[in-house]
Amino acid sequence: MTVDHIPSVADRRGSAPAPGPVTSRPHTSIATRRHRAFYMFASPWIIGFALLTIAPMAYALWLSFTTFDGISPRWHYVGFGNYRELFSDSQTWKSLGRTGLFAITSVPLSSIAGLGLAVLVNRPLKARGLFRTLLYLPAVVPPVGAGIAFKQLFDQNSGAANGVLNVFGIDALGWLADPYARYVLIMTVLWTAGNIMIISLAGLQDIPRELLEAARIDGASAWRSFRSITVPLLSPVLLFQTVTGVIASVQTIMPLLLAPDPTPAGITALPQSNYLYMMHVFAEYFAFGRYGYASALLWVLFVLILVATGLIFKATSGVVFYNVDPEAKK
């Protein structure tokens, strides 16, 4: 081959096949991947919330418009008939009033007891960790176990409470009957004050020591420092405890655990002072088989809890102090 027949570089490039289109993988932003990771990790809770909360609530809402009794297929749609009966039922209003009185009594007492215990174990005491553990232990006892223990403790015939009274020559009292049953119920709430103690203790340890030291140097007494510094800085914790305490108190089933006969047949024989709203719901469900009416009672309670929570937030909007870092707002 001579030099004249050697193809040039340009000829070789021109004769080569044209390259095909370059394909690239779609670019996924960091934000998109974070969103996917969030929903992947949150999906078990979301699915559980939908199946175990939203679906039962929707089913209960549907039941509240029917006369379903849980067994018979003969039921019919009654619209707002259950709700109209509810508002004209004197037993509903009486049980709701007892529940409100119980909440107004038990929530402040448990909050004060829990805060007092937190202040006590926050001091530099010997074996402070042991005291914290012992005071918190009752809070981890299951409610059913605590109810059975209190029922045996205050039994009129063989309870330890009447045994102590007999030592001092006092006749045995019917603790689980009127008018003492309400006091036993409040004792069961105070029994779990260790839970509030732990939350209050965390709030106390979050208060800057510089503020307390400055108040002490200025001559403020311990009570003045507690009232003017500790309580305002603990106000978000106290608000949380108030809201959760109100919700828990109106939903308590402890009167049923303290009942002499905790069965559907014996629920109507509860002491009147302990016949709270949830006991009325339980009786309508399982003693009388009125699933539709009981579901209406539960939905009214749900709305009342929302209203009560909103009123609490509205009433405390000007007295709750949130210690927010100014840099966190940017």
TrEMBL record:
Plastid recorded as keyword: no
UniProt topology in membrane: Multi-pass membrane protein
InterPro entries recorded: ABC_transporter_permease, MetI-like, MetI-like_sf
Any one annotated GO CC term: plasma membrane
Residue segments, region Disordered: 1-28
UniProt keyword annotations, A-Z: Cell membrane, Membrane, Sugar transport, Transmembrane, Transmembrane helix, Transport
An individual GO BP term: transmembrane transport
SUPFAM superfamilies: MetI-like
Entry's transmembrane regions: 37-62, 100-121, 133-150, 183-204, 233-254, 291-313
Domain ABC transmembrane type-1, chain residue ranges per copy: 96-312
Pfam families registered for this protein in UniProt: BPD_transp_1
Location(s), subcellular: Cell membrane
Coiled coil feature spans: none
CDD domains: TM_PBP2
Keyword Transport in annotation: yes
Family: Belongs to the binding-protein-dependent transport system permease family.
PANTHER family associated with the record: ABC TRANSPORTER PERMEASE PROTEIN (PTHR30193), ABC TRANSPORTER PERMEASE PROTEIN YESP-RELATED (PTHR30193:SF1)
Name of the protein in its database record: Multiple sugar transport system permease protein
Species in which this protein is naturally found: Streptomyces canus
